[in-house]
Automatic annotation (TrEMBL):
SUPFAM superfamilies: NAD(P)-linked oxidoreductase
Database matches in Pfam families: Aldo_ket_red (PF00248)
Keywords for the protein's UniProt record, in alphabetical order: NADP, Oxidoreductase
Cited Gene3D superfamilies: NADP-dependent oxidoreductase domain (3.20.20.100)
InterPro entries: AKR, Aldo/ket_reductase_CS, NAD(P)_OxRdtase_dom_sf, NADP_OxRdtase_dom
Lineage: superkingdom: Bacteria
Oxidoreductase found in the keyword field: yes
Sequence similarity: Belongs to the aldo/keto reductase family.
GO MF annotation terms: oxidoreductase activity, acting on the CH-OH group of donors, NAD or NADP as acceptor
Organism the protein comes from: Listeria cornellensis FSL F6-0969
Name of the protein in question: NADP-dependent oxidoreductase domain-containing protein
Record's keyword annotation contains Oxidoreductase: yes
PANTHER family: 2,5-DIKETO-D-GLUCONIC ACID REDUCTASE, NADP-DEPENDENT OXIDOREDUCTASE DOMAIN-CONTAINING PROTEIN
Domain NADP-dependent oxidoreductase: 4-141
């Protein structure tokens, strides 16, 4: 963990510090040395890349998972299975995906340049997906990335 992050945390300037795009083996390496374990791991995560093993690993280590591209950069929005669930609740596909994240305890950072969509994406607290619907969305996983695999990316 970078020294300046540890200092910010020790000085109580920030309440949590984290990492981004860490696979399990990156976290293993970090946790061997780190005096302060990261509290968050921000990773690509959406219904086509549900990252279940890494989520479980993070849960075991008390690391919150934060999903970047939670809507698959828009590519998951035409999914017919999620669309059929959305119709039941009179919600949008984006709202169902973000609700699926919420019920899994995943933090999301959806991006939109449209005010109405930003409001829509925050309006997910008045419905609840059934277990069967959660599992149906879980089953859509294809391990399909929209961005680069952190193992093959030159940071
Ligand atoms: N840490 C990393 O390595 C990393 C990598 C990539 C991205 N990120 C971060 O992750 C965040 C989100 O990522 P992202 O922008 O790639 O993907 P995203 O949030 O999954 O999808 C954004 C796309 O979905 C559209 N959209 C958003 N809400 C919608 C809605 N309610 N209905 C219909 N379309 C909707 C947006 O279009 P409009 O804008 O036109 O509404 C945009 O095309 C960003 O803050 C980004 O910085 C982090």
């Amino acid at each position: 963990m970078a020294c300046f992050l540890k200092k910010l945390y020790a000085d109580k300037k920030v309440r949590a510090i984290g990492v981004c795009n860490f696979h399990e083996h990156h976290l293993d390496e970090l946790l061997k040395e780190a005096k302060i374990a990261p509290m968050v791991n921000q990773i690509e995560l959406h219904p086509l890349l549900s990252q279940e093993p890494l989520r479980k690993y993070c849960a075991d280590k008390n690391i919150v998972v934060e999903a970047w591209s939670p809507l698959g950069s828009g590519k998951v929005l035409d999914n017919s299975v999620i669309n059929s669930i959305a119709k039941i609740y009179e919600k949008s596909v984006a709202q169902v995906i973000l609700r699926w994240d919420l019920q899994h305890g995943i933090v999301t950072i959806p991006k939109s340049v449209h005010q109405n969509r930003i409001i829509e994406n925050a309006n997910i607290f008045d419905f609840e997906l059934k277990d069967s619907e959660m599992k149906l969305i879980d089953s859509l996983n294809q391990n399909e990335r929209t961005g680069p695999d952190p193992d093959n990316f030159n940071f």
